[in-house]
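Note to self: keep these together.
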Amino acid sequence: MTDGQLLASYADDGSREALDRLVERHAPMVYSTCLRVTGSRRLAEDAARAVFLLLFRRAGALAGRRTVCGWLHATAYRAACRALEESGGEEILVETRELAAVD
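Structure:
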């Protein structure tokens, strides 16, 4: 099934399987985009979750697309930038200290 078909399935009847397939298909790209932007695992995870929540909320509007990869990438980038800005860089400092303590 295409991304659009999966989104339509979710929008029409709340298919949990459709959601799972979309997340499985796109989570690595979304997370890696967020991680590259934020430099923090925690911020990247939070931003990636926000991206998928937005995708599910807008499923009906996005269902007509064959793929949502481009939309997800752009949304992941913006969500990660927002998360980094809101953290004020504090999360990266904390994570760097934690990694230094392990060494």
